[in-house]
Amino acid sequence: MNLHNANIAVSAVSPAQYPSMVIPEFAFVGRSNVGKSSLINKLLNRRSLARISSTPGKTATINFYNIDDTIFLVDLPGYGYAARSKNEIKKWGEMIEEYLGTRQQIYQVFLLVDSRHKPTADDVLMLEWIRSYQQSVVIIATKADKLSKRELEHNLELIYTTLELTDDDVLVPFSTKSEEGKITVWDMINLLLEGEDSSDK
Predict the structure, then answer these.
(1) Pick from 83, 80, 82, 140: which is nearest to 109 by CA?
(2) Neighbour count for residue 2 (Cβ, 10 Å)
(3) What are the chain's domains?
(4) pLDDT band at 86 (very low <50, low <70, confident <90, very high)
(5) Residue 199: CB partners within 8 Å, gap ≥ 6?
(6) Three-state SS string across the chain, please?
(7) What mean pLDDT value characterizes the chain?
């Protein structure tokens, strides 16, 4: 898979606008300003492929990034930003739910939480929803570089217990300022792809 061959394929607000190409999709979901776009840019060694907004909650579309016609990385709208209207929040929630509930080619949903804070009630609800569709979950704790090693260890434990994670779940600290977490996320994506290839044989 050539990571240099990456582009935004579609910005969708409804299933009719989703890409017609059927390839594995890996979705990233989390609260507004948790760093989904920055994470995608880091994974792809890009600075600005994924659009980063200085205004939390501004992204109002589902953005599909085509990676070498092999996979899509999918950036879902952020949730939990109170400054938006109730109608907007409801619309975005329905958009996320419709995608996660109907898209058959989703291989993995990654839930992003801010490593600096205890997961919110919205994070807990999102995790419960993901669990109804996946046997195990992957939590990515973003902005790990903003904490000392001791603080990060403490907060990872807090995230683990608050979300009631199990031995089957994965918690990955991630930093866009270093390589922390990047290789782990790609390893998980590649393992899932290899598993599918094996099952087809």
Answers:
(1) 140
(2) 9
(3) 6-13+22-189 (3.40.50.300)
(4) low
(5) none
(6) CCCCCEEEEEEECCHHHCCCCCCCEEEEEEECCCCHHHHHHHHCCCCCCCCCCCCCCCCCCEEEEEECCCEEEEECCCECCCCCCHHHHHHHHHHHHHHHHHCCCEEEEEEEEECCCCCCHHHHHHHHHHHCCCCCCEEEEECHHHCCHHHHHHHHHHHHHHCCCCCCCEEEECCCCCCCCHHHHHHHHHHHHHHHHHHHC
(7) 87
Residue 58, classified by CB atoms within 10 Å of its CB into exposed (0-12), middle (13-18) or buried (19+), is: middle
| Separation between Cα atoms, residue 43 and residue 58, nearest integer Å | 22
Beta bridge partners of 73: 26, 65
pLDDT at residue 101, rounded to an integer: 87
Output the pTM of the full model.
Answer: 0.89
One-letter identity of residue 98: E
Which is nearest to 174 in space by CA: 141, 198, 146? 141
pLDDT tens, position by position, 8-21: 999 998 999 999 99
Cβ distance 169 to 136 under 8 Å? yes
Reported as a single tens digit per residue, the pLDDT across 105-143 is: 999 999 999 999 999 998 998 999 889 887 779 999 999
Q: Quick one: tokens of 128?
A: 């419960």
166 and 23 in contact (C-beta within 8 Å)?
Answer: no
